[in-house]
Amino acid sequence: MTHNEIEQALRMARAYAAEKLPWFAPALYAARLVITDALPFPAGIDEKMRVYFNPQWVAQLRQQTNEQKTIAQLAWIWVHEICHRLREHGERAREKQTEHLLWNIAADLEINDAEWQGLERPSRALLPQLFYLPCGKLAEFYYHELAKLPNFIESLILPVWDEGSGVHGQRREWELPDDEPQAPPLTELEQEVMRRAVAEAIVRHKDRGVIPAGWSRWAEEVLQPKVDWKKLLKRKVRGAITIGIGQRIDYSLARPHRRAETYEPVLPPSLQGDFVPRVVCVVDTSGSIGERELAQALAEVRQVLETLRTPVVVLPCDAVPYEPVKVLTASQLLRLHLRGGGGTDMVAGIEAALRLKPTPDAVIVLTDGYTPFPNQRYQVPVIFGIFAPNGSSAAPKPPMPPWRESDVVVIPLTNP
User: What pLDDT is attached to residue 374?
Assistant: First the structure.
């Protein structure tokens, strides 16, 4: 096969996988395809979402089977590789400080037991039952169990694929540099947005009986915000919103009361005015905010949006506030670009939010806490959502008084 034929086969396989498993399409098409002889194994993936294929192996596979089976197997491998990034195997490996080859096997066992209709699993793919282990477990479980076996790696008959930093977190020589223009890397934030897009698609398809239980649980965990904004808004903000709306409505004879016929000949007035709640989310975009914090902030904004079922204004702020953005739908959040990267002053963001016309009924501030806090309360309720690594209670908080504990919500943030 020529290089062009190999590339065409790989792109056809990706499209085939996206057609058969449409919930994975956001990740499949976000991945960069790299064809290289430097890869000593059939396929791999780096932490920047670049999927590598060895062209000699692809050509050999085509010689051994027909075109349909070749596409079906390549499609399976496409899904296999992007699943490593969806499950954040590289980050989890670094957190546990694992041995790379043993972790590679454990990570494979986590994702290989899923049955994908229309795709063909290669015969050498490792499955939990080969090692007398149960299916449906996480890589950490398999790693712990396999580590108990003496000389496990050496005892394997088939060589273990080293699939790269996207699986075990350790960069390999065959991986492209970050500044490679032909296959630009995906940032952590872009990958987090991709994960959420896949999770949303899985949730939409889960009632059709085609999603394995493990992937349904994964999707629910990805989409689950750390704060129950529905409960919090109901308890704290709803009252303020009600008051704010109350100031904007009054009785009027412009439109008849819906029960006007009951009161005839008396014409009762009806309530008229603006019933839509106004909430502004001030999002910390300073240099101390990493991509994971920013992704979590967007998840919280999404929950506020879905709770209120009305548009929410997002106001990015580092040392200065930036142009506010009115967000109408959750899908709009996926395309949102927030300016920032400088110093930190959430007071400037809060005051910019309060200057908006019309005035908001409530302001939610999402920050890591490393900012000056207001030394006074405002007429409009302000809630601080403070990101805390691993749920640490030592996260910076606004001074109390004048602020109260009920004004602060700690948002646990698990670091990779």
Answer: 94
Structure tokens, 119: 């795709």
Describe the crossing of helices 67-86 and 3-20 by its angle, rounded to 10 degrees.
70
Q: Tell me, which fold does domain 229-241+276-413 have in CATH?
A: Rossmann fold (3.40.50)
Residue 159 and residue 126: Cα distance in Å, rounded? 11
3-state helix, strand, coil in the chain (%, to 5): 45, 15, 40
Model-level pTM? 0.62
Identity of the amino acid at 295: A
Domain residue ranges of the chain, discontinuous segments joined by +? 3-172+183-223, 229-241+276-413
Give per-residue pLDDT as tens, 98-121: 999 999 999 999 999 898 989 999
What is the pLDDT averaged over residues 246-272? Answer: 50
Residue type, 5: E
Question: In terms of Cα–Cα distance, which of 98, 110, 113 is closest to 153?
Answer: 98
Angle at 83 between CA 77 and CA 87, to 5 degrees: 155
